[in-house]
# Entry
Amino acid sequence: MSESTLDHRFVRSELSIGGRRLSYVDFGGDGRPLIALHGHLSEGATFAHLARELAPAWRLIAPDQRGQGESDRTGDYSREGYLADLQALLDHLALDRVVLLGHSLGAINAYQFAARHPELVSALVDVEGPAALGLEGPNPLAFLLDLPFQAATREALVAGLGPAAPYFSDRLRQHADGGWRLPFHPEDMYRSEEHVHGDHWDDWTAGTCPALLVHGTKGVIPPEQVRAMADRRPGTTVAELDGDHLLPATAPEALAAAVRNFLATL
# Structure
């Protein structure tokens, strides 16, 4: 992915975790560190707009979470695996106190990490990350299992993706041999979604740092759960935005304003 595609400059770096590459983008600056964790089917560079809106007060660093973007695949998409990656990133960057922001999968990773390592997290921004998710019903990422992972040409891969092509076509990767692939493996993301489902209330309520809960009017967190998340965790502020679950993409300006206003209170 080029910097020009995202209209914001960043430096891409990586670290090795047991021989597995974890890639991350650093949008730079001298501001306070903020680690941003994307959701399923996304990657760190998609936080470019938010990074620009929060600069220069904040230096946004966003990993490509395991199996997505430029980070290597793994056989482990458990809760513990994601949290271990975040710990390794903080150690690699020598950061001992950060703000964590996450969207969807990334939000759950963020508040679970904050619950386990309160000394490392000064504040939390949860964007569309429920405290209880998918306790009943099918895996919403089951549609991925019908998608191709790779093809000989970009055109063939886009054609194979069908109606899903517009969501991923600007982030396809080219192999060294000339073939093209998705920025994630469909089976990996299906398994990851299975692991993220569950009752995470203990993790949500264990946090003590200031928190912002951002939800969309057409998001995935039911209104009664939004109220309960605010009531059961002291120090939680709620921001409701007119939008769906994919707020970083569908309501970037409103999201940036809500986050900026919250960070100004710290």
